[in-house]
Design brief:
Nucleotidyltransferase, domain 5, alpha/beta, 7-stranded mixed β-sheet, 11 helices
Length: 334
C-alpha cells in the first residue's frame, strides 16, 4: 500500500465489535528490546534516508509506578496477613509510530539520537489524592515537567489508565483494520518489568494477557547489562546517551513517574539512532554531547506545585541553558 493510500485509509472510528473485546490469554514475558529494527525505521546516516521500514506500526507505551510502603500488613480473611503497597503515582507516555511515519511526523527524520521525534510523544501523569504529601521530604511527584499532572482518587486510578489503554489499542486504525477487527500492536516499555507487572496486577489491569501486547524491560538490554555496573541505574544509562534529566533549579527529575516514562522513550530512540561515532563513544564508555533540554521551566515553576507551595519565578542563575552541560557523574562511566 502506498503512503498516500495508507493515510487515506487511517480511520478515527474507535468503535469495535463484541468479538474485538474478547482476547485469548497468552503467556507474556519481559524481553529485551533486541528487535528494534522491527519497530523503528532504519536510517542510512550517510544518505539521510530510511533503508528499511518495519512491517508493523507499533505504539510504544512507557509505564512507571511509585508505591508507598504500608507500615502494617493488611488482614486477609482467607489466609495470612499480607502487605499491600498502594500505587501513589503513575506515569504513562506513548509514541505512535504510525503518527510519525504517516501523520504529523511524515517526512521528519529522527535527527541526532532520535531527538527530532521526542516532540511527538504524549506524556500523562497521575497523582493519587489520598496519599498526597504523606512524605514531605519527597517532592518528586510534583516535579512533572511535561504538562499538568492529573489528581485522581485511588478508586479511580485503574479506570483512568484502562481508558487510556482502551483508546490506544484502537488509535489511528486503518479502515481494513477496523473492518477485520484488528487492534494496534502495543509495546509496554519499562525499566523494571516486575514492578510494573505487580502494579498492573494490583490495579486489576490485565493488559499483559492481550495478544497484541508485549512488554520490554530496558534493564535486560544486553548492551546496558554488559557495559554498566549491575544492577543498571536508569540515570546512568540516560547520561551515557547524553539525555538530560536534571533541572537547574529542582535537580533530578527522573524520580517522578511521569518524567521517567518520557525519558524511557527518549532513551530507546537515542540508543537506536546513534551514529557510528556515538556508538564508538558509548562502547568506550566516553560521554556523548548533551542533547538540548526537552522541558521548559514553566511546568515546574507554575503548574505542578506541592500542597502549600506558591508559583515562583526563576532567578537568572536557575535558567536551563542548552549550552551548559549537565554535571558529569563518573559512576555512569565506571
Amino acid at each position: 500500500m502506498s503512503t498516500s493510500s495508507l493515510q487515506e485509509s487511517v480511520s478515527s472510528n474507535t468503535s469495535i465489535s463484541d468479538e474485538e473485546t474478547e482476547y485469548i490469554p497468552c503467556e507474556t514475558c519481559a524481553v529485551p528490546p533486541e528487535s528494534l529494527e522491527h519497530v523503528f525505521p532504519t536510517l542510512d546516516t550517510k544518505m539521510n534516508q530510511f533503508v528499511r521500514i518495519p512491517d508493523s506500526d507499533y505504539i510504544i507505551i512507557a509505564l512507571d509506578f511509585h508505591h508507598i510502603c504500608e507500615k502494617e500488613p493488611s488482614v486477609s480473611l482467607d489466609g495470612p496477613p499480607y502487605r499491600h503497597d498502594p500505587v501513589i503515582e503513575a506515569g504513562i507516555a506513548y509514541l505512535d509510530m504510525r503518527d510519525i511515519l504517516h501523520g504529523r511526523g511524515k517526512g521528519v527524520k529522527p535527527g541526532d539520537r532520535g531527538s527530532s521525534w521526542f516532540k511527538y510523544m504524549t506524556p500523562l501523569h497521575y497523582i493519587v489524592e489520598e496519599f498526597e504529601n504523606q512524605d514531605a521530604s519527597n517532592q518528586s511527584p510534583y516535579l512533572f515537567a511535561f504538562g499538568r499532572s492529573r489528581r485522581v482518587q485511588q478508586k479511580d486510578l485503574a479506570y483512568r489508565l484502562y481508558r487510556v489503554f482502551a483508546s490506544l489499542k484502537k488509535k489511528n486504525r486503518r479502515n481494513d483494520e477496523v473492518e477485520q477487527g484488528h487492534l494496534r500492536q502495543l509495546i509496554l516499555l519499562t525499566f523494571d518489568a516486575e514492578s510494573v507487572k505487580t502494579a498492573l496486577l494490583q490495579l486489576g489491569l490485565e493488559w499483559l494477557s492481550e495478544p497484541n501486547v508485549q512488554i520490554w524491560d530496558l534493564k535486560k538490554e544486553k548492551q546496558f547489562e554488559t557495559r554498566l555496573q549491575q544492577p543498571a541505574v536508569f540515570e546512568h544509562v540516560l547520561e551515557r546517551l547524553g539525555i538530560r534529566f536534571e533541572d537547574t533549579r529542582f535537580g533530578k527529575l527522573s524520580s517522578c513517574s511521569g518524567n521517567a516514562t518520557v525519558f524511557m522513550i527518549q532513551l530507546i530512540l537515542a540508543f537506536f539512532y546513534r551514529d557510528e561515532r556515538q556508538k564508538a563513544l558509548f562502547e568506550d564508555r566516553r560521554p556523548l554531547r548533551w542533547l538540548r533540554y526537552t522541558w521548559v521551566g514553566h511546568s515546574l515553576d507554575q503548574l505542578n506545585l506541592a500542597p502549600g507551595e506558591l508559583p515562583k519565578r526563576r532567578r537568572d542563575s536557575e535558567m536551563n541553558r542548552h549550552d551548559v552541560p549537565q554535571k558529569k557523574n563518573e559512576k555512569a562511566f565506571g
